[in-house]
UniProtKB/TrEMBL annotation, chains A, B:
GO CC, any one term: cytosol
Superkingdom, natural source: Bacteria
Keywords noted in UniProt: DNA-binding, Transcription, Transcription regulation
InterPro entries xref list: cNMP-bd_dom, cNMP-bd_dom_sf, Env_Response_Regulators, HTH_CRP, RmlC-like_jellyroll, Tscrpt_reg_HTH_Crp-type_CS, WH-like_DNA-bd_sf, WH_DNA-bd_sf
Domain Cyclic nucleotide-binding: residue ranges: 41-136
One MF annotation (Gene Ontology) recorded for this entry: DNA binding
PANTHER family: CRP FAMILY TRANSCRIPTIONAL REGULATORY PROTEIN (PTHR24567), LISTERIOLYSIN REGULATORY PROTEIN (PTHR24567:SF28)
Phylogenetic placement of the source organism: Bacteria, Pseudomonadati, Pseudomonadota, Alphaproteobacteria, Sphingomonadales
UniProt-recorded name of the protein: Crp/Fnr family transcriptional regulator
CDD domains attached to this UniProt entry: CAP_ED, HTH_CRP
A UniProt-annotated Pfam family: HTH_Crp_2
Organism: Sandarakinorhabdus cyanobacteriorum
Span of domain HTH crp-type: 150-223
Length: 233, 233
DNA sequence: CGTATATTTGACTGAAATCAACGCAGGTGG
DNA sequence: CCACCTGCGTTGATTTCAGTCAAATATACG
């Protein structure tokens, strides 16, 4: 709370003191950005929108998604703190995806009109952006590989395992809070709500995980979970 | 032939005159690279390899793939002329994918030991690399969206349609040569050889495409092909 | 407490995988 | 020249995993 409050009060000059940017190399960048907060469910970028922006996520989780011709939502990626949203270039045509907050989010927004100049002034920033984009490409390729061949069980187990890695040690040692609803998991993993639910139950029945309630998952057998995730991928 | 021969004779100084780099911004970059040719089937990068490189494809087609735990090959992307292979950074750990030539390939290779300096000297080059990486990210996300929800028919139709766009007007107006075997298409689309074959036959029977033989495809009804590709995606 | 929403569970269906032949070049060697 | 082999593609029969349709809890929320 204190954290969020202090951010909302930030002037542009003080931005660098707000949320932790991913890398020291980004510190000078922060001085050129403005602070922005989003509530859960708020849309930052809408597909087809001509207005573009580039921002760095300081706190919270976002989804990149779009609605396919059949009217079904497909989530093509999640964005965690430190990740960049949008593109730094003006020439790229309209946005192809929606970007929506899945939780309360704090952003450091860089207006596209000045970002090219900012990058020119701070080569390390451009380097960092390139580096992160390459990392994200690797991530998406891993998702691709999973969607191409993995069974429903492996997709669900893999998602839980990866989420656990991202959220190290909450209150309880092996209990994590999933950031997505069953429906959102289905949209991300290319499955249906029912199938996601069934695989969760299957993992619970096998003693691999526990489901204390809500979106919480207790990981009882990490090795078995990893094995289930790898079973075809 | 003349083209290929002249490239092989290039000294480093003359490299810029060889294959067409994607953008005028890359011209100065070419002077810092060396020419290399690969035969169909040759491996440029092997997964797990610590040695990294960065290269720009001038001619030919490559695949980015890896073998999953079940022993099945998954193709996570194709690389066309103008695309970059590998990464410009030394810190990224071992390669995660194989990169293999699907046809005769000409490359402009940049040694990683000097590329950071080259990028520092030519900011436009780094900008171009970032821009292309972002574009590739968009491509992969489209594939992801397709793999998440599209039917076998839509995947195959989409692949044919996209290939046709990439290879504008060969000899015959609406005849294209697929760059992949049925098995490679299956690995790319997350299907089996049999299913790919069946969908091709289905499109042929419906009068959408013709199959003159070999890997050739005659596109008889582009609108119907596009419609089949969009049917769920 | 009651209503709305999310999740689980069950029965059935269907699309693609699997298993299994078959056809068709293109090359090799008798 | 022809028989044989090999790799690639097509076709058919059957199985299976996940989707669809439907209903029963469970949880969140006013």
């Amino acid at each position: 709370m204190v954290f969020g409050k202090s951010c909302n009060q930030c002037s542009v000059r003080e931005t660098a003191l707000c949320g932790v940017l991913a890398d020291a190399a980004l510190a000078p960048m922060a001085a050129h950005g403005t602070q922005r907060s989003l509530a859960r469910g708020e849309t930052l970028i809408r597909a087809g929108d001509p207005a573009r922006l580039c921002a760095n996520i300081q706190r919270g989780l976002m989804k990149i998604s779009h609605i396919n011709p059949a009217g079904h939502e497909v989530i093509v990626g999640l964005l965690w703190p430190g990740d960049f949203v949008g593109t730094p270039f003006l020439d790229g045509g309209p946005a192809t995806h929606d970007v929506v907050a899945l939780s309360a989010v704090s952003l450091c927004v860089f207006p596209q009109t000045t970002i090219e100049r900012t990058m020119a002034d701070h080569p390390a920033m451009e380097r960092q952006l390139l580096s992160r984009t390459l990392a994200e490409l690797g991530q998406v390729r891993r998702s691709l590989s999973r969607l191409a061949r993995a069974t429903a069980l492996a997709r669900v187990a893999g998602f839980i395992a990866e989420t656990a890695q991202r959220r190290p040690a909450a209150a309880e040692p092996h209990v994590i809070e999933l950031p997505l609803s069953r429906g959102e998991m289905a949209d991300l993993l290319g499955l249906t709500i029912e199938t996601v639910s069934r695989q969760m139950t299957r993992l619970k029945t096998a003693g691999v995980i526990g489901l204390p309630g809500g979106r919480q998952v207790m990981i009882q057998d990490p090795d078995a979970l990893a094995e289930a995730a790898d079973e075809l991928m």
